[in-house]
């Protein structure tokens, strides 16, 4: 893309999210969300093939409809309380409608249908921006307004997200769809802990963004988008294969890696509040996620699938693709568990 | 609640249903999106005038600006779809299914 246009688009993306995150008036928050959506469309359509066009159209339709529903909720709130403050949305109709609109923007069940298709239709880098940066603005709004919503709706959506994220990803061979269902599942975890301890939502978001960025950058570095190309990664960049294994295990929430930290703290928080069945269901459903991560690890690093001898003796080219912050992100996504007591800093 | 507000909220709900339940053309969905925006504009303008929210009288105009941008982007996407398929039928958008 033209560098001037690209810098303008990325600046608008940054500005939109920052405007939403730093606002206390609902109208500026809504304007930031609109700016995010409008500037995401050219990012999704960087390559102009029919799949990108279809992905951009589906993204536009769902997000525009969610924005309109959010604006209606704000207008109803204005009608009943006369103010535009984000933290005081006391009318139940308005706050639940805004909750549903924000859940659509995040891609959590039952409004999750656009996430796999849109992530699949675009390249790896726009997909990365879609699944990480676009979660910041709606979650910052949810963090502030969730106290007045019906918590049953939040629990329902969260549990459904974990179920659908787990079961939906089982039959996939395309890596972008697998990461989309993983995103749906993690959104479920983030939503459920929101009424109990919102700080853990932010912690989960931070660690999820680190992990997802690592995985997307590893995949973008080796140009792999499906499981069949993943099986040939061992010959080109064996170090990245091992890093992918460690990061995927961390995403599934295995103990000595940092992905275990948010899940452990969230289950601890839920059991402190005398809720046993819900964390049990959540933990068991996340095992479905773990199954398809294990399948990816199995195919990329633990076994070598049958291939011709030509594949086993490829010419070892040096890697000329710039790995931006990948070493730092991989260390952060695997070795943060001993720093768990430092989350008291976040309170 | 005064009858006029309920009337415009009903217009919003009908446009929302029109966005979600359309037969074949994507254009009708975009039109209902604009219908939602129009009902929101009217509701906001009436609220600012009836309840004397003098500082919020610019809110309908700001909504209109963003809705115009959205409409432009939506139409541009519609044109790109028409470039590929010749029509804007939504059953053509089936490349990305599982």
TrEMBL record, chain A:
Keywords: Electron transport, Membrane, Mitochondrion, Mitochondrion inner membrane, NAD, Respiratory chain, Translocase, Transmembrane, Transmembrane helix, Transport, Ubiquinone. Its main location: mitochondrion. GO terms for biological process: mitochondrial electron transport, NADH to ubiquinone. One of its GO terms (molecular function) is NADH dehydrogenase (ubiquinone) activity. Residues 290-343 form the NADH dehydrogenase subunit 2 C-terminal domain. It is a multi-pass membrane protein. Its EC number is 7.1.1.2. It is found in: Mitochondrion inner membrane. The chain crosses the membrane at residues 64-81, 93-115, 152-171, 202-220, 241-260, 280-305, 326-346. Belongs to the complex I subunit 2 family. Core subunit of the mitochondrial membrane respiratory chain NADH dehydrogenase (Complex I) which catalyzes electron transfer from NADH through the respiratory chain, using ubiquinone as an electron acceptor. Essential for the catalytic activity and assembly of complex I. PANTHER family: NADH-UBIQUINONE OXIDOREDUCTASE CHAIN 2. This is NADH-ubiquinone oxidoreductase chain 2.
TrEMBL record, chain B:
GO terms for molecular function: NADH dehydrogenase (ubiquinone) activity; oxidoreductase activity, acting on NAD(P)H. One of its GO terms (biological process) is ATP synthesis coupled electron transport. It is an enzyme of class 7 (translocase). Its EC number is 7.1.1.2. It comes from the Eukaryota. It catalyses: a ubiquinone + NADH + 5 H(+)(in) = a ubiquinol + NAD(+) + 4 H(+)(out). The chain crosses the membrane at residues 6-23, 30-49, 61-81. Its main location: mitochondrion. The keyword Methyltransferase does not apply. It is a multi-pass membrane protein. Belongs to the complex I subunit 4L family. Core subunit of respiratory chain NADH dehydrogenase (Complex I) which is composed of 45 different subunits. Core subunit of the mitochondrial membrane respiratory chain NADH dehydrogenase (Complex I) which catalyzes electron transfer from NADH through the respiratory chain, using ubiquinone as an electron acceptor. Part of the enzyme membrane arm which is embedded in the lipid bilayer and involved in proton translocation. This is NADH-ubiquinone oxidoreductase chain 4L. The lineage of its organism: Eukaryota, Metazoa, Chordata, Craniata, Vertebrata. The gene is ND4L.
């Amino acid at each position: 893309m033209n560098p001037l246009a690209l810098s303008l688009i990325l600046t608008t993306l940054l500005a939109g999210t920052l405007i939403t995150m730093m606002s206390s008036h609902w109208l500026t928050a809504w304007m930031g969300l609109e700016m995010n959506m409008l500037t995401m469309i050219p990012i999704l359509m960087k390559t102009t093939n029919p799949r990108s066009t279809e992905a951009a159209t589906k993204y536009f339709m769902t997000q525009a409809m969610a924005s309109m529903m959010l604006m209606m909720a704000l207008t109803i709130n204005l009608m009943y309380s006369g103010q535009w403050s984000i933290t005081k949305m006391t009318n139940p109709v308005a706050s639940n409608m805004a909750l549903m609109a924000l859940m659509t923007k995040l891609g959590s069940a039952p409004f999750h249908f656009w996430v796999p298709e849109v992530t699949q239709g675009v390249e790896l880098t726009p997909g990365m921006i879609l699944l990480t940066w676009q979660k910041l603005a709606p979650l910052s709004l949810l963090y502030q307004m969730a106290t007045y919503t019906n918590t049953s709706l939040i629990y329902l959506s969260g549990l459904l997200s974990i179920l659908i994220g787990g079961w939906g990803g089982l039959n996939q061979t395309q890596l972008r769809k697998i990461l989309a269902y993983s995103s749906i599942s993690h959104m479920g975890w983030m939503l459920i802990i929101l009424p109990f301890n919102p700080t853990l939502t932010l912690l989960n978001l931070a660690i999820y963004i680190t992990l997802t960025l690592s995985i997307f950058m590893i995949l973008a570095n080796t140009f792999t988008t499906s499981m069949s190309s993943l099986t040939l990664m061992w010959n080109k960049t064996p170090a990245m294969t091992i890093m992918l294994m460690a990061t995927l295990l961390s995403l599934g929430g295995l103990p000595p890696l940092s992905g275990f930290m948010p899940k452990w703290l969230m289950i601890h928080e839920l059991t402190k509040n005398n809720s046993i069945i819900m964390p049990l269901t959540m933990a068991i459903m996340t095992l479905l996620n773990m199954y398809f991560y294990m399948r990816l690890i199995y195919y990329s690093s633990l076994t070598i699938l049958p291939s011709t001898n030509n594949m086993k003796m490829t010419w070892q080219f040096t890697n000329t693709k710039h790995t931006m912050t990948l070493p730092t992100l991989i260390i952060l996504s695997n070795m943060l568990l001993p720093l768990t007591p430092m989350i008291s800093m976040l309170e | 609640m005064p009858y006029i507000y309920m009337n415009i909220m009903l217009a919003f709900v009908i446009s929302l249903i029109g966005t979600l339940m359309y037969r074949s053309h994507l254009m009708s969905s975009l039109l209902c999106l604009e219908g939602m925006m129009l009902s929101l504009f009217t509701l906001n303008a009436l609220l600012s005038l009836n309840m004397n929210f003098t500082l919020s009288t610019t809110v309908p105009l700001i909504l209109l600006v963003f809705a115009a941008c959205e409409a432009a982007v939506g139409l541009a996407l519609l044109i790109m779809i028409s470039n590929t398929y010749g029509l804007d039928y939504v059953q053509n958008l089936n490349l990305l299914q599982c």
